[in-house]
Specification:
With about 325 residues, this protein is of the alpha/beta class. The protein is about 45% helix and about 15% strand. It has 12 helices and 14 strands. It binds 2-amino-3-ketobutyric acid (AKB). The site of 2-amino-3-ketobutyric acid has 11 residues, from loops.
Length: about 325
Amino acid sequence: MQKTILILGACGQIGTELTYELRNKYGSETVVASDIREGNDSLMASGPFELLDATNYEAIEDVVMHYEIDEVYLMAAMLSATAEKFPNRAWNLNMNSLFNVLNLAKEKKISKIFWPSSIAVFGPNTPKENTPQHAIMEPSTVYGISKQSGERWCEYYNKKYGVDVRSVRYPGLISWKTMPGGGTTDYAVEIYHEALEKGAYQCFLGKDTKLPMMYMDDAIRATMELMESPTEKIQVRSSYNLGSMSFTPQEMAESIQRHIPDFEITYEPDFRQTIADSWPSSIDDSLARKQWGWKPSFNLDQTTSEMLDNLKK
Ligand code: AKB
């Protein structure tokens, strides 16, 4: 029987591309997109859409019942930089939305959940290079605290109530279809837009700030492969480390200069530098590779080519 899917936060950076890919794979009518606001024209035209607040349990339950939803992808969240400005709102959105879907699964109204965690679960006391799956965490941002707590709740609901919840710790994500909003890794998308528009970019992180990053196509494929894996392979029910590439703003600028030789970058670090400094530089994702076959395919120069080609169009 065909499964039906609900995406909460479908109009954001990940949600938009996930909606397109899930619709490509399972058919437009079986994937219900939802968000608190409407998305771009092509997303709105691509299949069913509901205006939905992810913190409203009854509203989600109504949609789940109406469409007979099996799986929920919870992509609604407040990201790291914005969350530092609005800690209560961030906690409320990031935690209550998660409890809503976990409780729907506990009550057997849905059968599977995808929930994104982040490299932000790690903190200043975590080993920075090749950060292991299991390490000291101690996140120092509101967003990181919410993601780490979320991971604990996911594992708890799985062990205690048998909820089939799956998760990855996304690194910074680079995409051309939708802009990110409110993250610390957003520079890695803004830089391509400004390279094409102005030939220059002022970066809000310092030139040597190395962070784990991933091209969106890899992130969407990881998400879908994790969700399609047989249950017995998914042994981590908090969240999997997910790696691809790591680079600094300077290395990214050099990659762009191979296409736009006159591109100039300057550095003016702001409050986001402290957040970035508390995160890993690179990630050990060997458990994801071993247990469900994760393998990234885009490196920095391939990402740069894809980004510049598509944004030019
Ligand atoms: C952010 O910068 O807040 C996000 C993340 C790494 O989770 N992109």
